[in-house]
Batch of 2 targets.
Target 1
Amino acid sequence: MGKVHVTIDGIQVYVPDDYTILEAAKEINIHIPTLCFLKDVSEIGCCRMCLVQIKGKKGLEAACVHPVYDGMEVRTHSPEIIKVRKKNMELILSNHPAICQSCTRSDSHCELQALANMLDVHFSNYKKYQETVNQNAAVDMDDGISIQRDPNRCVLCRRCISICNNIQTVGAISAINRGFNTIIGTAGNRGLDDTVCVSCGQCINVCPTGALQEHRDIDSVWDALYDEDKYVVVQTAPAVRAALGEEFGNPIGTDVTGKMVTALRMLGFDKVFDTNTGADLTIMEEGTELIDRIRGGGVLPLITSCSPGWVKFCEHNFPEMIPNLSTCKSPHEMLGAIIKSYYAEKNGIDPDKIVVVSVMPCTAKKFESQRPELAVDGRADVDFVVTTRELARMIKSIGIDFNAIADGKFDDPLGQSTGAGLIFGTTGGVMEAALRTVADIINGVSSDSIDYMEVRGLEDGIKVAEVKIADLNIRAAVAHGLGNARKLMERVKAGEHFDFIEIMACPGGCINGGGQPLQVSDVRNWVDFKEKRAKALYKGDREKFIRKSHNNPAIKKLYKEYLGMAGGMKAHKLLHTHYVNRKDD
Amino acid sequence: MAAANNRDYKTITEIRELREETLKKIGARLGRDNYDGAEIHLMVCGSTGCTSSGSGKLLEKLDELMERDGLSEKVAIVKTGCFGLCAEGPIIMVQPGNYMYTQVTPEDLDEIWECHIKGGSPVETLISQNESEFFSKQKRVALRNCGRINPECIDEYIAFDGYEALSMVLTEMEPEDVIDTIKKSGLRGRGGGGFPAGTKWEAAAKQECREKYICCNADEGDPGAFMDRSILEGDPHSVIEAMAIAGYAVGAHKGFIYIRAEYPIAVERLRTAIGQAREYGLLGKNILGRGFEFDIEIRLGAGAFVCGEGSALMISIEGNRGEPRPKPPRATEKGLFGKPTVLNNVETFANVPQIIVKGLDWYNSIGTEKSKGTKVFAVSGKINNTGLVEIPMGTTLREIIYDIGGGIPDGKKFKAAQTGGPSGGCIPAELIDTPIDYDSLTSLGSMMGSGGLIVMDESTCMVDIAKFFLEFTVDESCGKCPPCRIGTKRMLEIITRITEGKGTMEDLDELEELSEVIKRGALCGLGQSAPNPVLSTMKYFKDEYIAHVRDKKCPAGVCISMLRYIIEKESCKRCGICAKNCPVGAITGSKEEPYVIDQDKCIKCGVCMSKCPFKSIMKNA
């Protein structure tokens, strides 16, 4: 790769020759406005916000996709460029409902609003068009189990299409109709719940407006909290604590576990438990399942089932791999089942009065909690799932000064957890947690080398590791992002041998789940926010006194007092499940 | 003639022998004294225009007559491509002698059969009066075989120098020579942009890539345009041959023709032609035994206008929603399936074989300095000879309209002509002597476009015309970029308001501003040119816009909202016929009370005016 000299607004810059004008301008701190552009996800130059003038060219060019060349001279602003950008924005706003005051995005995450501000657009210039908005663009809202789509708020930047089709390879949405009637829709314009959508929610994370958001479960949770008759228990997933702070102005990667627990108490939850404990439980069950399958000649590779987006993806696209999926429920479902059985019995609470609320970094968990096959005796393990974002909204809505409150501690016994449970929140974490436990079980002694660095990291979409434990050579693979999962499954189908595979549906794992705090494209394009969130989890793991799931005293007690053996009869009834072939859905 | 000696191709010698044999067979058609085949050739137009005006029935009837009279030795019936005078279809031309019969009915056919075919004396009363004026100023290069050969018979194409260019290229020329010839010919893209074809070929040839593609754009989508359809219906092999030549020149072995599914006849003839070319080894692994491989696939488009845009067309061929993408990279670097691709339009290709065979001097002698050769136009609108014409570049609009087109019907005055379809603009009457070439049209704010030419007379409202094209653009916008998706829609809302008499002077400024933003901001050429019809009508007919806005009047009397029918009290005899005929009961009156039209109820159908025996009802624009 060579480097080239480019002059932007009179300033010389020397950049790699595969740079775009946008990247070159960034080098000299010129921020060219973008709307449709999302680095490595959507680079299609369709929104026409980043138009610049290249000397010697007649038209204006899109800086986000136009490559640099040696001797190039670029102007990023001129009366003409400003006029075109501004008018373009006014046109977009002329077809956008002015309901900002009740839009969840307007709380500093609406890129459209930010851009309109930046371009100094005036309502008076486009208000004359407003009268046609409703009659022309009134399209039905699709409010599914996990995801809510409002085509009226959509600006057709198509980032959601790119991430759904190119990164996740799910292919649930695309542009339909033409011209002014274009909307982002599904095949046959069905609701997302009736499509191959896996509810991963990555589309929400990349949406610049409020057109995409999670299905709202806040109100049901408030109802339960204010119901005197209910015993409302909350549990929080590992990745939530590594990101929730962003909603309150903390730097990306701030661990806010203590304040989160306090805030949950202030919201009125009767008990605050930790899904990490559920994760430890999952490791006991899944680790046992792995050893059993390897020793007993069962179906290999064993593939993790913690990620509900991945599970649905597998059911749609690789139903032939269903026997490979671990029968283990995901950690919050396991914990929910234990709360409504063991915990209820022990404390003499009627399980029908218990409401389990899961705070998850995930939108697919909403769908998962409603899967009928996950219920025990007709009773759902988890009643409501709210996302990290929804929790932040609840905290804000009752005026808690989040950053000022004291740190709290999870309740016993289901708040005791290990470092292993904590790293569940990022890619490679489930694998590492499982290996820590499996190694000790097989070796029969406690090992000190417990950092499996080869399965960590976000750089590679697919990570492969050979791990030798006693007489066993375990060939393990980790994939994050469904596009990578698809590639890995193709490799398995082509005959490549693996013993154990961890898959997380979202790129980077749960820390970048579809329910996590939003980061606008300006951050996503230039800052590795996933890495920062993951670091918070690994730091927490290092600082934990207990870092292996099987050493969690609460888990030991649970097996001793209630479950018996890992993988035993009772465990199977409460903690395991089965799957559905959705090939023809 | 089957290929000999286990070969799956014909040699150049065999093709040349076949040419001579065929020429002898159809010698009578050419007026030669020395011929083998039938002595009379009845050329029946089988293109879309004449098929819809009934040429199919004539062909059936001719078969019956042939059988009845047993004349199959003497008479040949040839289903041809378009003659061009589509307004007067169905057309039959009797050869030798160029006797052109137009608007032929089955009864006419009986007479022609008896008198002309059997009796030897042409039916003067049925012979077209327009034929000579229509053809005399034309120069048929791209359309050279339309109406002259049976497009479903490869031998007839071969007879008229067909595949001679390919033979020459494969034996006598290096790929660089071919590119050099096309560059020097000055052939420019006939699809709209006018980009030099040779330069495009050269750019693709330079790419070091084993896989390259030749694409033919047959996604003709301008309203009223049918140049490419006619070429493919009348002479499909000329495009196939040219694509093979282009393949040889740039190093491609595969071609795609992207054609709209609404062109069933053209698709069928292309399929037949490709099949025949393969059979003769003119497409395939070892063309003419010269070791060159090239084959062509047809891809059907679903009719989206935007798929005529190069990048959208290729994305559509790849199986995705047809939408343009930003350039660079150009198609010649990364086109179809990410490989270097040459995309030319049908008419551009149709010129290529002739340039090779007849040479640069011949081609350079046609046209103007910067626009060489001819251009095919589909002429429609308010003109007598609606149809397809091919003129040397530099011909004036006046010559097309008055000499070739036979002038404006009903003695009305010429007002303007629209070229370039929805991407083009209008040329007003005062510029009727402009010579037509790429640069002059662009300088007038219009463009050559693919060749649609719509003639408008004094009864045409220019605001209404701009609205028509804008409606088209709004419908056909792909929706990818906001300036086109929302901008054209807003323009249409404004212009609709103006035609309804609700416009303001600020609206005119807003139209201009929106036009500018769309021109500069839209992603693709179609979006960028979408405001052209508005801009050019505003440039030349601003007074009409102002009349609509300020005076609330449509000078041409077209915009219905502003139209008023008024009963003239003085001449009204109070007969009541108008009131009886009014379909909405908008007219009241009696012997005692004068008849008046309630303007709120009136639907402006004009029945009252046509029924009034005393001409007392006036249309007030």
Target 2
Amino acid sequence: MDLFATIVVDGLIYAGWLFIVSVGLTLVFGVLNILNIAHGSLYAIGAYASASLVGAYFAAGGDAFPYGSYAALILAAVLVAVVLGPLLERGLLKYFYGRDEVLNVLVTYAVFLILEDVMKLIWGVNPYFVYEPYTLLGDVEIGPLFYVGYDFAVIAAAIIVGLAVWLTLNRTQIGKVVLAVIHDAEMSQTMGVNVQRIYLGAFTAGAFLAALGGALTAPMISVTPGLGANVIIVAFAVVIIGGLGSVPGAAIGALMVGISRAASVHLLPEAELFIVYFVMAIVLVFRPEGLFAKTKARKI
Amino acid sequence: MRYVLFLYAAIAFVVLAAGSIILPDWAMFLFAMALAKGLVCLGIVAMMRGGVVSFGQGLYYCIGAYTATLAANMWGLSDIFLLTLLSSAVCLIVGVIFGPMLATYRGIFFAMLTLALSMVLYGTLSKMSVLGGSDGLNIAPPTFLGWAPEGRDLQTALYIYVVAIVVIAGTLMRIYFDSEQGLITLATRDNELRVEYLGASVRKVMAYNYIFAAVLGGLGGTIAVLALGHVDPEFAFWTTSGEFVFVAILAGYMSVPAVFVAAIILEVVRSFSNLYFPNTWQLSLGIFLLIVIVTLPNGLGSLLSRRKGGKT
């Protein structure tokens, strides 16, 4: 029973983190039709930026009010999104809309390679540690198990992010416009929607979510180069499982991957590294386009 | 027409093999690695002709390399011909298992599934301490039908061997590309549904392409591990596969020689940026990749065919 509870709690924590990273990826794919490998770089940059910013916060006397470091985390993600989102979308990606999907993956792969080195140039290759925000929330006791409170804050953040994205898309005017663009960009354009601006907004929002994922993770790990390469592949698996472009799909995908990974860690540790892809392969065998994919008419 | 092709193949062999006389040691190693990787990329191009791109060709590159290494370490097998034969046979079997299953997937889903398979292998190998875990394994230099060369002789022999394999594989793939199956592949790229309605089995064609690519991947992996003397799970990591896709995109799907030219270009660009910008070689590679995508969206091969008057 304890083992079961451990698996569920660990799985939920992992799923929460995964969801924050994946929902941005699926949003960008849904609107721009680009599977963004550079999402992993944005994640890593978010982690670095927050490590720097939180470090600076405590260096500037933040000890007096340590909870302010959470604001620093989120501010870091906003900064990354505001700087890099428009830069990448306006500066590069807009020239590739409507091109072959796989070619676009390659474009973002190139961006990924470039950003990997840019990160090393800015932050060097030594690890960064910002443990303060992690220990601030104390411990949580569930039966015989102890957890760090911060882990549950990540789950809460994931739920807030999920609700925010879902409500924005389905309950606001701007969200309806975004859905219209996802459905048919050309038709929306003729109806007077500024599609370019929607693309820019969606990409920046995606970048923010990636950076937020990184920023929230930074206190839990040591921030080192190569962080993005592992994250992006797992996030891919999540959005593919859920169906590309689907927000509920990303949530289900994150849960499936999170729980199965936690189960594997506790029951079959050898399988930890590939259980994610295994789950994805199984889902794709039965649902070739993912769980929540929209059916498309084939053109002859 | 066919004997013109053989003539070209013979010329290609002579020109490439001449490299063994004029190239310095470091360049010969670089070319051998580039050609070995080119074989893997040729497999990706075979699939690309049908409109699908595998993001996990490192799977076969890695299987080929590990098969050769294990055969050498466990059974003392060192003959390069036997090693090559064995690893391509293993890759053939794996390809036959997965090929028909993957043949129904397209676009991003095909890319992600192939990626998943290679990452499963990566994960497994990293955790298996019997196979060296993430440190990998070493392999002794190969022998050639009982002849065990050393130093420059070994390099030359290995280089000539990879050139021969490249020319043979390239010629065979050209013949395949021009065959009925190969042309159906091209038609599938344009419009899959139409091909189905005309009575051809797209699924069968895709499975064949995948299987050929698997064998080519195994060949490339075997030669690469023999040239390097070492294999580790990174062979199956997604960034390795990403490089193969990069070469395939750089080459385009129209020309076979372009694949190897592209592989050599990548290897040269990488070595030189490694040398001159040791901290920013990924950055240079990324910029190079972007330039290629912008200026040559159909790859190097499109330059050749444009000169021939648009014949593809």
